[in-house]
Structures are given as structure tokens and as C-alpha cells.
Amino acid sequence: MKENNRRQFLTTAASTAVLSQLPAVHAAGSDTLKIGLIGCGGRGAGATDNALKADPNVKLVAMADTFSDRLEGSADRLKKLHPDKFAVNDEQRFVGFDAYRQLLACDVDVVILATPPHFRPEHLAAVVAAGKHAFVEKPVAVDAVGARQVLETCREAKTKGLSIVSGLMLRYSLAMKETIQQIHDGAIGKIITMQANYNINGLWNHERQPGWSDMEYQMRNWYYYTWLSGDHIVEQHVHGLDLMAWAMKDQYPIKCFALAGRQARTEPRFGHIYDHFAVCYEYAGGERCFSFCRQQNGTDQDTAPLVFGAEGTADFRRKTMTGGKVWRYSQARNGEKDIPYQREHDALFRSIREGEPINNGDYMVKSTMMAIMGRLAGYTGKTVTWEQAWNSKEDLRPAKYEFGDLPIPPVAIPGETKLI
Questions:
Q1: What letter would DSSP give residue 44?
Q2: Are 164 and 177 contained in the same domain?
Q3: What is the DSSP letter of 82?
Q4: Which residues pair with 86 in a beta bridge?
Q5: 53/101 same-domain check
Q6: How many CB atoms sit inside 10 A of residue 218's CB?
Q7: pLDDT exceeding 90 applies to what percent of the chain?
Q8: Is position 415 within any domain?
Q9: What would the pLDDT profile of 313-344 be if each residue is shown by its tens digit?
Q10: Contact 125, 149 (CB under 8 A)
Q11: Could you tell me the residue range of the domain that residue 99 belongs to?
Q12: Same domain, 149 and 197
């Protein structure tokens, strides 16, 4: 039933959207690029703000979300920020599980995908089928089934000449690019170990309101349900893991083990995800990445990624090299503003104007998969290989997308939870 539901969900989307296919490339000039936003939460509004700043001749013309209050809140915000570029009339504000299909039937050129990560594979497939360019917020999936689908979709996008830009914004940071280049040029020698930290306090939570079904409650608190977020190692820590993958020239680990659990965030309102992960990733050449992420109130915060080489250390937070070569990034040297959230959208719209598509599909999928692999190791207590993770049949999709009952899976118990 789950597979049939998914195929129907996608096939209907693609067949509807294909009716409004547009040319893949807009040449430089006066053509207005029309933007559609799917997922109108804070991240969606933020990404759209950046998109509207990225090109002088763009307009936001359509918005879609499961919930009308989220849509209207973001619409009000964006209209105030960009009164001359906000052109979303009442007929192009779509609400519900099929809202994305309705948006894709509109005359839009670029689509921003910022729903909870669970929906990314289906939505991106529909966007590419409709011939639209896409900004794809991270992560791109919550399980291997979704990751494999996204990779195939990105390959299709290449054949259509469509740009796919990832929300893994550190790849667009000038400081990170220069730091990575120093590593690749041998400034610290051969990489021996890496450390990716994302240790912070707790996040938001919404109390259940009268009339909310299980589905609505979980979607309103999507962060705390693995089927929607992938757990915080996937939803948030993917940034740090992607940075480590970049340092390794986009080589990915062959296996990992993890210590993980749920100690401080144990109340039912926090769903069933964990609040800490410590993962040791091992590479084919013997290098190791030690990954730590924690969301516990009252704890020390640390988000400093480090790469240790045979001849020195790279500190991404300080943007420095120490050891054999002493180096520090200087923004004054290049004179450009280094705002990664903005730069990724600048690159997307420039690629469309110049007819030179960007496709970030490979690394955005594999870095998401690296995070999923760590979660699987943490949940099961087993050493998990890349092949096991990539070929996993774990499918977190619900049987159907509608408001109603939706049981919460039990909290994973290492040693009992099985690798599927």
C-alpha cells in the first residue's frame, strides 16, 4: 500500500506539472524569473528572501504549504520585505498535501523546496518532471529509499539542463572554499583525522492544540519525528558532515559505529528522536571522522569543525591553519561579502541567466546519506557499512498522507532495533 500510495502521489504530480513545462534556461536579459515557494516555514521564507535579492528581475508568484497559517505568515513577511517583487495573488496560494502539485501547474521558473525533509524526494521529482529549476534545502531525504530517488532525479535534471542548488550553504562560503583549497593544496599534509561538532541547546516545540490529529501534531512538530526530519544528526549535523566530505574531496566513509541515545529530551512532546550522537566514520584510506552532535539544554555549545593532518591542523570556525603552514582567511583580501545563505541563491540565478546549469545532486545526496548512516549505527548499535546504508530498505513514509491517526514508533533501542 505504501509503495502504491507513493507512486500515485508522484505520478499525479508529474502528469499535472508537465502541462506547464517551461524552457530550462532563461537567457540573460529582461525576462522576469518567476519563483514558487513550497514549504512556507521560517526557512522557506528566509530562502525566498535570499532568492528575491539574488536577481534584479525576479518575482515571487506562488506559494504552497500544508497549513494556511504558515503560508499567510510568510506571505505577510515577504510582502513587507519585497513589496515590488511580491506578486502572489489569492488564486496562487495553495494549501494541503497536494498544494505542491497546484503550484507546479502555475507559470513558475524556479522552485524553492523548504518543507520538512521527508517530502523532498517526491517534491523534487515533480519539480524536475515539470522542467523547473530548484533550490533544494538540506537534507534531501530521511532514508535511503528517498536518497536513491533524489540521486536519480538529479541525473534527470542534468539531461534537461536544469539547475539544482543545494541548501548545504557552506559549499558557497568564500571562507570555507579558501580553507578547503588550502587543505587540498597540502597545507596540513595528508589528512589523518577529522572532528565535526554540532553541540547546541534544545530547539522549538509546539503544544498540541484542540482539534489537531496525530498527523497534524507531528507535522507541526516535525523536527521530533524521524520520518519527517531524519533525526537531528540528519536534519542539522549534515552541514558539518558535508564539510568533512568536502575536505576529503568528496570521498565518503566505508563504515561507521556510534554511541547515541535520548537522555535529557525524554518527554512525549519530543517525539521519539535522540538528543545526542557520537559517530566514528572510517574511510578506505584509514582516515577517521569523529562526529559529535547534541541538543541538550544547559550544556556547552560547540560547532567547530577541525581537520588534523600529518603536518598541521585546519580550524574551520577560526578559518586558520596551524602547524607546518600558518594561514588565516581574510575577507578583506577578496572584497566580497561572504554570506553563504545569499551566495547560494546568487549562484543559482546567475546559472539560469548564463545558461550554465549547476547540479549539486551528487554531494547533497551522499552527505545526507552519510548522516543517515550515522543514525542507523546509533539506532541499532551496530557497525554499518556504506553499502548496507545505501541499500537499506528502511522506508519511513506513512501509508497515506491525510490528517488522522498516526501512531508514533517506539524510541530506537541499540541492540534491539534492527537494520533493515
A1: H
A2: no
A3: -
A4: 60
A5: yes
A6: 19
A7: 90
A8: no
A9: 999 999 999 998 899 998 766 677 899 999 99
A10: yes
A11: 2-170+341-359
A12: no
Q: What are phi and psi of 364, to 5 degrees?
A: -70, -30
Mean pLDDT estimate for the chain: 93
* 93 vs 115: CA distance, rounded Å: 15
Taking Cα atoms as reference points, which of 106, 104, 166, 92 lies closest to residue 130?
Answer: 104
Name which of 320, 327, 295 is nearest 229 in CA terms: 295
Q: Which residues contact 303 (CB under 8 A, 6 or more apart)?
A: 197, 198, 199, 200, 240, 317
User: What is the rounded distance in angstroms from the CA atom of residue 52 to the CA atom of residue 231?
Assistant: 31
> Do 195 and 143 lie in a common domain?
no
Q: Region of 351 please: left (phi>0), alpha (psi -120 to 50) or beta.
A: alpha
Structural domains in the chain (count) = 2
Q: Give helix then strand counts, H and E, for the chain.
A: 15, 15
Is there a domain that residue 180 lies in?
Answer: yes
The predicted-structure confidence for 402-419, as pLDDT tens digits, reads as follows: 999 999 999 999 999 999
> Do 299 and 350 share a structural domain?
no
Pair (203, 238) in one structural domain: yes
In the structure grid, which three cell numbers stand for residue 209, read together?
A: 492544540
With a CB cutoff of 8 Å and minimum separation 6, the contacts of 113 are: 38, 39, 120, 123, 124, 127, 134, 135, 136, 137
CA 148 to each of CA 313, 377, 392: distance values in angstroms, whole numbers, following the listed order: 35, 19, 10
Strands 133-136 and 110-113: parallel
Q: What's phi and psi for 249, nearest 5 deg?
A: 60, 40
Tell whether 317 and 192 lie within a shared domain.
yes
CA 335/CA 353 separation, integer angstroms: 24
